[in-house]
């Protein structure tokens, strides 16, 4: 289904939304591994994708994923230890299992044992090494969430745009969101280098932000950073009925 050049799919039940996203991730991993020998998936934080990660890490889907050739990255991370309940890495790996065939060396979590700026610089170095041949962070699929305020990853409204050319940046604790901890985030430069970006959004509290981002697009500007996500391969919105409630579909 598309509207105004936007690819979107709306699902009645949360379980159907989670399954669609999991199948998309599995398919992207299999296609990338077959085409280029490896797959680079960038995972979203927050709570919405956890059901998706559980499905991806379990049979029957897990069997479809060439885990030995999959590399997992994160779009943002809270500066808390990996075993902290607010850790995006901790939550994703707990939901995924993690899959037994996924080599530990293929996990590329954002470092949280450093102060935010050095941690962001370290992650940028990780990305630049991994994507040395491509010269830009060509994730095969970047999964993103959306906040009711229009943020994505840890790119918050009104925040100064990340330094030009940077692929990772530190983000101060958001005053209006929990957890109010410092974060590391991919920059828009990095997100927009992805082959494809997929927003996974559920819940009526997101409906107004979904409408502004989709209907106003980049005109929504930095007060809705999610509206600035525009990789060459396009953006796909996977929504539940609630999150799509204000869209004229
Ligand atoms: C984070 C996330 C953030 C998240 C949205 C939606 O670290 O908080 O990366 O961008 O995706 O806030 O979060 P929910 O899925 O929990 O609503």
What would your notes on this structure say?
The chain is of the alpha/beta class and 249 residues long. The chain has 6 helices and 11 strands. The chain has helices spanning 14-36, 50-56, 88-96, 116-130, 188-191, 207-216; strands at 2-3, 6-11, 39-43, 70-74, 76-78, 107-108, 141-144, 168-171, 183-186, 197-201, 235-240. The strands form 2 sheets. An 8-stranded mixed sheet has the order 1-2-11-10-7-3-4-6, with helices on one face. Helix 1 crosses helix 2 (50-56) and helix 2 runs parallel beside helix 3. The chain is globular, with a radius of gyration of 17 Å. Bound molecules: 6-phosphogluconic acid. 6-phosphogluconic acid (6PG) binds next to strand 5. Residues 44-48, 75-76, 78, 88, 145-147, 151-154 line the site of 6-phosphogluconic acid.
Write the SSE topology.
Layout: E1 2-3, E2 6-11, H1 14-36, E3 39-43, H2 50-56, E4 70-74, E5 76-78, H3 88-96, E6 107-108, H4 116-130, E7 141-144, E8 168-171, E9 183-186, H5 188-191, E10 197-201, H6 207-216, E11 235-240
The chain binds 6-phosphogluconic acid.
6-phosphogluconic acid binds next to strand 5.
CA radius of gyration: 17 Å
Q: The biggest beta sheet, please?
A: 8 strands, mixed
> Helical proportion?
25-40%
| Hetero compounds | 6-phosphogluconic acid
Mean pLDDT: 94
Cα(first) to Cα(last) distance is: 9 Å
The strands making up the biggest β-sheet line up spatially as 1-2-11-10-7-3-4-6
Low-confidence stretches: none
Strand content: 15-25%
Number of DSSP helical runs: 6
Order of helices and strands: EEHEHEEHEHEEEHEHE
- The structural class is alpha/beta
Oligomer category: single chain
- Shape annotation: globular
Number of strand segments: 11
């Amino acid at each position: 289904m598309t509207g105004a050049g936007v690819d979107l799919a709306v699902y009645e039940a949360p379980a159907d939304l989670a399954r669609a996203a999991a199948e998309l991730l599995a398919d992207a991993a299999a296609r990338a591994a077959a085409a280029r020998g490896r797959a680079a998936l960038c995972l979203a934080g927050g709570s919405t994708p956890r059901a998706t990660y559980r499905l991806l890490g379990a049979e029957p889907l897990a069997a479809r994923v060439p885990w030995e050739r999959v590399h997992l990255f994160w779009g943002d991370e809270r500066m808390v230890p990996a075993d902290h309940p607010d850790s995006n890495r901790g939550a994703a790996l707990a939901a995924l299992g993690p899959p037994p065939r996924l080599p530990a060396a293929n996990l590329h979590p954002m470092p949280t044992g450093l102060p935010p700026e050095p941690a962001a610089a370290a992650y940028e170095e990780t990305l630049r090494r991994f994507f040395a041949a491509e010269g830009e962070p060509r994730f095969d699929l970047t999964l993103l969430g959306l906040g009711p305020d229009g943020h994505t990853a840890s790119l918050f409204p009104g925040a100064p745009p990340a330094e030009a050319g940077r692929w990772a940046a530190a983000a101060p604790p958001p005053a209006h969101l929990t957890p109010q901890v410092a974060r590391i985030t991919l920059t828009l430069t990095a997100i927009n280098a992805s082959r494809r970006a997929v927003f996974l959004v559920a819940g009526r509290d997101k409906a107004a932000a979904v409408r502004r981002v989709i209907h106003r697009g980049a005109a929504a500007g930095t007060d809705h950073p999610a509206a600035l996500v525009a990789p060459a391969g396009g953006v796909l919105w996977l929504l539940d009925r609630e999150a799509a409630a204000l869209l004229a579909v």
